[in-house]
Amino acid sequence: MNGEDNCINIECLKLVNSNFQKFLDIHSTNYHIELKKSLEEIGLFFDLDRIYIYYFSKDPTFMQIECQWNRKEVRPKREFNEEEVVYALPWLIRKIKNSNDVVINSINEIPDEAVSEIEAFSKEGVKSFLIIPLKSENKLIGFIGYESLLKSIVWKEGQIRILGDISKAFSHTKARIEKEKVYEKDINGQSILLNNSESQIWALSNVTSYATANEAHAKFFGKTKSDLEYQDLYDIFDIDTANKLSKSNWELFQKGEPAEKELEIKNFKGENRLLKIKSRPQRDDKGNIQYLICTANDITEQRLAEKELYKAKEQAEAANTAKSRFLANMSHEIRTPMNGIFGFLELLQATNLSLEQKEFIREAKSASEILLHIINDILDFSKIEAKKLTMEKIKFNLRNSIEDAVSLLAPKAAEKNLELYTMINPNVPEEVIGDPSRLRQVLNNLISNAVKFTSKGEISVKVDCLKEENKIAFLNFEVKDTGIGIRKEHINTIFKSFSQADASTTRKYGGTGLGLAISSELVKMMGGKIQVESIVGEGSTFKFDVKLKIVKGASVQKFDFEKLRGMNVLVVDDNDNNRKIVVSYLQETGLMVFEAKNAAAAITTIISKANTKNKINTAIIDYQMTDMSAYELATTLKTMPFAKDVKLILLASVNQKGETKSSKEYGFSCYLGKPVKRDDLLNCIAMVLGLKKEDEEKCEVVTKHIVREVKNELKPKILLVEDNVMNRKIVINILKLHDMTCDVAVNGSEALKAVSEKDYDVVFMDCQMPVMDGYECTAKIRILEGDKKHTTIIAMTANAMEGDSEKCIEAGMDAYISKPINFDTMFKMIEANTKKRELVPDYNKIIDDNIDCFVETTGLEKADAREILEEYTRCLPDLLADINRAIDDKDFDKLAGVTHELKGSSGTLRIMSIHELAIKLEAAAFKHEEDECGRLFAEIKALFY
C-alpha cells in the first residue's frame, strides 16, 4: 500500500506542477480552453463527477460560473452561464467568506440550518462535495466546487490540500488575466487619446533622446511615431532644429519642476510656428528624473489674434481717452458760463426787484438748474459707459446723508403742496463706510421723479436695515409716491438709457431718461439692485437695496434724556405719517409722547392731563391743520391758565420759512422744517426742555432753512484765485452780500506770492489758469509752508470728470467744489475753516471816532485833545472790567456807581455814543434789570471793536 500511495503522491505532484506550469504563462485567448482541460484532468484523476468555478461579479451580491466540467453521464452544474444571486446559498457563502474550506462527505452532514443548501444539493443529487475559496491578494474573488453524484466520498486531508494548491493556480491566473485586460484597455484608451489629441505630447529620456511621442508631435515635423521613439534628436532632425530643441530641453530639465515656455521653430513645411510647451518631470524611486513629459500647442494664430486685439484695444483706449478729454473740455466749457449764469442770478435776486422781475429770476434759475441736471446726467452716463466711474469708500453719517437728500427736494414738494416725509428705522446704523454722494444721487433721482410725477398727495422715503452680517448692513430704501404711475408694459424699459415711460412723458415733464439708468448702475456698484412696483393713476414705489460696511461705536444721542423723566410731549399733526415719524423719533429718547390729530384733540389732551402726572410740558404743532392753524392754537393755549406754560415748537414746511419772526411773537420757542430730521428734533427738544447749558440756550426760534452765514466777528481771510473776470465778479459780490471780502489773484504765481505774505483761512483755487495753474501753485505752497502751517486750499473748477477730484487731492488741495458753485456749500467751507480769533478791543477807535467833535466843542488843539482822550482810554479797561464784575455778581449798587463814573467822563469828553448808553445802563441798574444791564453793556463793548 505504501508503494501505491507514493505513486499516487508523485502523480499528484505532477498534476499540480503541470497546472502551475500551464497557467504561469497562459494567455487570455486560450485561457478558457486550457482551464476546461485542467478541470477534466483533475476530475478524472480524482474520480469526481463534476467541477465548477464561480467568480463574484462587480456587484458582490451576484456570482457567475466561469468554467465547469462534468462526466458524460452527469448533468452539468448549470445549463446556462448567467448571474446568480449569492445569498440563495447563505450558509455556504458565509462559510466561504470566513475563508473556510467546506468539506461534506455525505449530504446528511449539512447542518439543519442550511435549508437552502440541503434543498439545492439534494435536488441535484449531490452525494459529497468540497468547496475551496479562491483569493487574489487576500481578497475573496470566488470559489471552486468539486462534487460526487454517483457515490459518497470521504475527502482526505492530502487530497484537499492538493486540490487547494491547484485552485491557487486558477485564482492567480484569473487575477492576472483580469489585470492584463484592464491594463490593455488603459493602454489602448491612452493610445487613442494620445494619437488623436491635437496637442503634441512626447517624453524625453534625456536632453537629446525621445522615449515616446504621439502622432501630433511627429506629424508637426513630417515624421511618424516610429521615426521619433527611442531616437536621438541629431539623428532625426537637421542641425538647426536639433540645436533649438536640445537647448529648450536643457532649460526644462534644469528647472526640475513643472514649467512652461514658448519656442519658435520651423514645421515640416518650413513655416515658423510658435509652440507653447509645458513640461513635468517624472521621477524614479530615488528622486532622479526618469522622463520629462512634455505637451505643446501651436499658438501662432492665437498670438497674431492677440496682437490684433491689443492693437484694437489701444485704438479703443485712444478713442476713449479722446472721448473723455472731449467730455472734460465740454464739461469745463459748459460749466464756466453756467457758473456765471447762476452767480449773476443769485446776485440779481438780492437786489430790489418787482414781483414780476422776481418771477422771471425764479424761472431763469429753474431752467438753469434743469440744464445743469441734464449736463450732469450725460457726464455720469459717459463715465459709466467708459467704466471710469468708481465708488468712494469713506466714513459718513448715513442718517444725515439720507435726510439731506430728502431736504434738498423739500422746497419743490412744498411748492406743489405735497407732503414729503422720511422714516428711518431705529435699526439703521448711524455711521457707515461707502460713497455718500452717490447714495444721495440715487435718492435725489428717485425723489425728484416722485415730485415731478405727483400732483397731489404725498411722497414717503423709508429706510430699513434688513440684516447685519460680518459688519455689513443690508439696507433697503423705498421711495413711494401717489403720482401718475407707470404702465405695466413700460416698467421693464424705464431703467434703460434714454428711456421714459412714453413719449408723452417727455413732452409733459421733460428729462433725458438717464436718471433711472444711472441710478440702476450706481445701485449695482453698491452691491444691490433696484426695482419698481406701480399702478397707473395710483402711484409708484421704487425700492433698492445696498450693502454698506458698519462703523461700530457711532454715538446716537447727544443729550442725556434720562434727566427728563416725567416730561411729556404732545405731537399735533393732521398727517398720520408725519405724526408717527415724529413720535417714533421721540420715543427713542424715552420721553412720554402723546398724539393729537388736530387742534381740538390737542386742547382736549392738554386739558384732560393738566392735573395728572402726564401733564403736557411741550407741544410740537403743525403749521396748518384742518380745524385751525398753529398760531390760532398757540393763542388759544396762552389764554388757558393750565396751558400757558406749555413750551411750543412749530412744525412747518419749507415754503413757510418766513414765519420765523411771527412764530416767536406767538410764543413758539423753536421752529422745525419738514421733513423732520431726527437730530434737529432732538436738539430742539433738548434746548426747549433745558438739557443744553445755559450759555448755549438762547431761547430763540431756530430755522434750518436759511443760508448759514459765517459770523462776521470771525472775519474770515479769503483768497480767491481765478483768471476769469466774470467768475471773480460773481464770487466777490456774493461774499459782499454776506458782509465778507476777499483778496484776489488772477493766476498761480500771484497766489503763491499772496500766501507767502499773508495768513489766509481759506484759498479758493481755480485749476486751469495761465502763467501757473492751480495744481502747480498748490504744490509750491505746500513746499513753502512745510511743517510750519497748513493753509486750507479748495479747488474751484469747472472740470467734473472721473479723476479730477483725485488730481486735486494729490496736488495737495484739501477739498473740491465744482462749478457752477453751490454757494451754500462754499459758505459752509468758509465757516468750517475760519480760525476763531479772539477779538481784541481797539480803544484808539474811540479817539478816532470822537476827536473831531471834541476839538470843535472845546476849541482845543488837536494834539492836546488827543492827549486828553488817550488818558481817558487808559482808564477805560479797568472801568469796563468793574462794570462786568458788578453785573456777574448782581451787585446793582456797585454797578450804578461805576456806570455813573463812565457816564460823567464820557459826557465831559463829548463821547456821546458811550454817554447815552451809560445813562440807560445806570437807570437799569437802579431798577435791578439784570437782562437789560447785560444787553446795554454788550452794546457799549461793541463800540471798541
From TrEMBL:
Function: May play the central regulatory role in sporulation. It may be an element of the effector pathway responsible for the activation of sporulation genes in response to nutritional stress. Spo0A may act in concert with spo0H (a sigma factor) to control the expression of some genes that are critical to the sporulation process.
Subunit structure: At low DSF concentrations, interacts with RpfF.
Catalytic activity from the UniProt record: ATP + protein L-histidine = ADP + protein N-phospho-L-histidine
Residue ranges of domain Histidine kinase in the record: 329-550
InterPro entries linked: CheY-like_superfamily, GAF, GAF-like_dom_sf, HATPase_C_sf, HATPase_dom, His_kinase_dom, HisK_dim/P_dom, HisK_dim/P_sf
Primary enzyme class: transferase
One family name in Pfam for this protein: Hpt
GO MF annotations, alphabetized: ATP binding; phosphorelay sensor kinase activity
Ranges for domain PAC: 259-311
Matching SMART domains: HATPase_c (SM00387), HisKA (SM00388), REC (SM00448)
4-aspartylphosphate modification, residue list: D622, D766
Protein name: Circadian input-output histidine kinase CikA
Protein family: In the N-terminal section; belongs to the phytochrome family.
Gene Ontology cellular component terms for the protein in this record: plasma membrane
Modified-residue entries (Phosphohistidine), positions: H900
Domain Response regulatory, chain residue ranges per copy: 568-689, 717-834
Annotated ranges, domain HPt: 861-945
Known EC number: 2.7.13.3
Domain of life: Bacteria
Gene3D superfamilies named in the record: 1.10.287.130, 3.30.450.40, 3.40.50.2300, Histidine kinase-like ATPase, C-terminal domain, HPT domain, PAS domain
Key words of the record: ATP-binding, Kinase, Nucleotide-binding, Phosphoprotein, Transferase, Two-component regulatory system
